[in-house]
């Protein structure tokens, strides 16, 4: 298509269309951040008077937000731990072994990502309700792990596939045990991927709404459920500030992932260049 | 494991293979057990519940109920809103992906950042952003009034327009990412070849470019349709009573009416619709693969 429309008018039209669609994606986010500093926190843009009141109100006495925030953080932390355990083992099985029924296992892992979340949430409700576990942070964390662990598995599969297996074989040929190889070769090389998997698991759980809503009770209300409730039932202008904080959080997390990947990208190359330069693999010392 | 390696040194190759298999099964166990217990089994019990009457005997009553009266109109609304969303996110996605695929790498990267970053921000938060923007005194109506558009302010919230605007912005990152990948994969020499043989712009677009990206378009559209089907947050917050979608109904039945069997039947219907859609996606992509092979040879 590059060759087809080189006319100026065509280019201007194209740029205009692309800009409008990009604004369509970005504006709702920008508007929240701006409005969170506005004295009129509801549906007025641009603001007339600037203020930090909504942020102050978040942490005022009697505010329900800190409890929701710490509950969501706790659940997300638990869910991240579960997802990493599942992710590391499953990705190892799917990339480093001869697994019978490999495609069935892979399909099972993809399942929670393609099935409507409301169906998963309903199923979990039917599972935890008879067990009298509604409102338990552990139940919500276990539920979130159903959605977060497949993401961790996929990220870690990509990570392990990106690690040259010759490095591991070389270490084995020089007498390193499997634990040593895992600790000194695979782990350092997979660390950026593991951090990315952890961050994405955390975000997935932290933002999850359907399962939280089905499994929450009056006492255990996660942050997204609290945001939803305040948008539907109780009008609480602080929700704008909360939303802005969530936006900042997500962007920070993505930035962190990008940073870690950038820092980790040079590692394997430096190892492999040692191998080609000397003809002998000297993994271990350089890897850390 | 050490004991395993020591048992039969006579057949090292066979042993290695079986050890790798054993390690694989051992490492696959956590994910398989976890998802069987917390994903497959719950869905299975949802299915059972949807087929159970009050006294425990088999019944199709809940499906009949889910497919008649108000519930049927909710299902139709769900299909309609999902179709509208899929169509719009396909058109916008096509335009944007096409524009980005022609940009210089730096600009393309920045544009993709604007596409991808919102996807990782909570849908709840983005929906709230739309509610602020589309209100009577929101950014959209204020700027339209500033341009003295006739009839402003418009009712952009709590109706179908609002819902479709919201859901489209949620699905757009998927279609853009998918189509961008497809468009980058188009062999531009084919277009150049067509041009060298005297084909006009429209002809090249219609006869060469479109057939090449068609499977991608089909799967992107289907995917956003499927993803919209089970959507709850945006329709519930940005729609009116006439925009109740099936996920909202499931939620109401569970949290308000305590009508689990009905909710289960609707969940199964939603699941079946999704699976049918996924099957179509698979069909389309295998069709596309065979077409690509043909055009390459």
Radius of gyration of chain A: 24 Å
- Name the helicity range of chain B: over 70%
Q: What CATH architecture of the largest domain in chain A do you see?
A: Orthogonal Bundle
> What is the typical, i.e. mean, pLDDT of chain B?
88
Cα distance, first to last residue of chain A? Answer: 47 Å
The number of distinct helices of chain B, counting runs of at least 4 residues, comes to: 13
Q: What distance separates the N and C termini of chain B?
A: 50 Å
The CATH topology label of the largest domain in chain A is MetI-like fold
CATH class of the largest domain in chain A: Mainly Alpha
Number of domains of chain B: 1
CATH C-level of chain B: Mainly Alpha
Round the mean pLDDT of chain A to the nearest integer and report it: 85
Molecular structure report:
The complex is a heterodimer of chains A (288) and B (297). Chain A is an all-alpha fold. The N terminus and C terminus of chain A are likely disordered. Chain A starts with 7 loop residues before the first helix and ends in a 10-residue tail after the last helix. Chain A has eleven helices and no strands. Chain B is mainly alpha-helical and 297 residues long. In chain B, helix 4 crosses helix 10 and helix 12 packs antiparallel against helix 13. The longest helix of chain B is centred in the first third of the chain and has 39 residues. At the A-B interface, helix 1, helix 3, helix 4, helix 5 and helix 6 of A face helix 2, helix 4, helix 5, helix 6 and helix 8 of B. Chain A: Belongs to the binding-protein-dependent transport system permease family. Chain A: This is ABC transporter permease.
